[in-house]
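Troubleshooting log. The previous run stalled partway through. Resubmitting the same three chains, unchanged.
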Amino acid sequence: METKTKDFKYVYDKPEALVDKVTHYCPGCGHGIVHKLLAEVIDELGVREKAIIVAPVGCSVLIYDYMNFDGCEASHGRAPAVATGLKRVNPDSIVVAYQGDGDLLAIGTGEAIHAANRGENITTIFINNAIYGMTGGQMAPTTMEKQITATTPYGRDPMDVGFPIRGCELLNTLERPVFIERCSIYDFKNTLKTKKAIKKGIKNQIEGRGYSFIEVLSTCPTNWGMKPQEAANWVKDTMVPYYPLGNFRDN
Amino acid sequence: MRGKPIIDTAKCKGCELCNDVCPVNIMAMSDTFNKQGVQYAVCIDEEKCTTCGACAIICPDMVIKVIKYEQG
Amino acid sequence: MNEKILMKGNEALGEAAIIAGCRFYFGYPITPQNEVPAYMSRRLPQEGGTFLQAESELAAINMVYGASAAGARVMTSSSSPGISLKQEGLSYIAGAELPCVVVNIMRGGPGLGNIAGSQGDYFQSTRGGGNGDYRQLVLTPATVQEMADLTVLAFDLADEYRIAVLILGDGYLGQISEALVLPKPTGKVFEKPWALTGAKGRKPNKVASLRLVPETSLEELNLVLDEKYKKISAKECRSESYLTEDADYLLVAYGTSSRICREAVNELREEGIKAGLFRLITAWPFPAEALRIASAKAKKILTVEMSLGQMIEDVKLSVKDPERVDFYGRSGGMLPETDEIKRRIKAYGN
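Second attempt completed without errors. Output:
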């Protein structure tokens, strides 16, 4: 170290709750950003030793390898049911169900709705990137109208396969959820808002208040065929108008 | 100099998100390649760093830490 | 308390689960096992436990998965079509090596079939209805007493081997009322250092079946599971041999059909015909060695099932001279008849 170097402090350091390793995610993938935000929140709230991450099936299937706390695999769409079992046995644990759009709004719609409806005291982080990433870019329930994917080569036709489903609005018809918010990581300001929402979701759980749902409009540069910054812009310009950002409920 | 980003260049996947997010435009990509075969993030003018942390927060791969020097 | 009490099979099973320390139950209604969730919904809150009616069979088995991963003794129950829906979860439970007890009070199939008792799920139970290379322990009670006793055993076996234990009953056994002596807790304690209880003072635990990269070889997991299955096969075969030592004619059955066979054996013996019964208590592992011994002297071996022939394959694989093996079964919720069994045995003598 140079003798002249002044003392310093970290403005941003690796959270303890994050494992120091290179992820399998593509360059610019939103999962990496949200993983960090979650780890930061877990650290800031001091719950790393109580936390359990429930991994979905999808690109983030290995999230438990990146989180420095207990982790549990769930079969495709069943994370809310697995989280329910974990939480009911150990109510003091902090259980986070991390799910993608296919997981939460296609194959696991039933589990998602009923865990929310029961008001399970868990936190769901819902990554909406409008596509199936891991399997190679097929249509998701949240794929935008006219969006071209591996299984909508002519663009998503809502008259054939329906319109994209809005998760927050759907859950907002239920009585028991205490917190529902849609955020995004397409820029710095919104990334900070996303962190704040995740923090609120975990805090609600610590306080035993019930079910929190945080939808994050995220990116999939690889399967969208865009550079990471272009993908971020696409979220802002194409997804946000259809999936309005903001808080739907904060009881 | 208020502080600067500390960049773990080996981990960088070259997504360039830090380049776009930096409010004072001091993040850029290297001319050379790291072991992953990508041009990695570099800070081209540490003097201008405001230590806002935006590059670190937006980085999906935990490549960047930001330090701030204590006032002395 | 060794007092005899009268209980329905399904309720005896529920009480036995509580005796075994089960405090978590997740399930979805389906006939003819509805007495189990009804009983658990009444009893578990009294014991400080959790009963939760899930939104689906899929959700129920995955709640079981989660509760087991958290270290609890947990049970679900269903009947044939519902058990089909649980197969995905059972495959993951096998891969993640989670202990749990799953009750199948079988009904007629395929499809929606009917609600009468059946034994049509033998293949599904013993061959694994889910994907991948796995096994699960299968216990086959034949009386209300055994519905209770084998349930207590099931929880210990599940914890000992970190495996799903199936209790394979049928609609008749679930619904029948019989006197029983409630079993006592075994008092066995199983440490679960792998459970997800929070990474305090230890490295994070992971509960998962995924093995994508060479460092976490899937074949390695498969071989670990295989070792476990071999150990179970060597140690946990259970069966009952009834009047088999001098039997010229051996009946092979399990569950409700074995009750009918026992009656036939008794009546045949009264007529001077040397009949015997070999009854499975575990369907997997299949008690092949015991069956080989019990069938050694038999001229004919009649397999009796409430299906059109599933267990018979294991019988043929186990006995010497399998051409001795014959079959009688009824399906669609119908019961084999004592008289028909007797008629067939007598016909062998001619």
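Takeaways: Helices of chain B lie at 17-21, 54-58. Chain B has one domain: 3-68.
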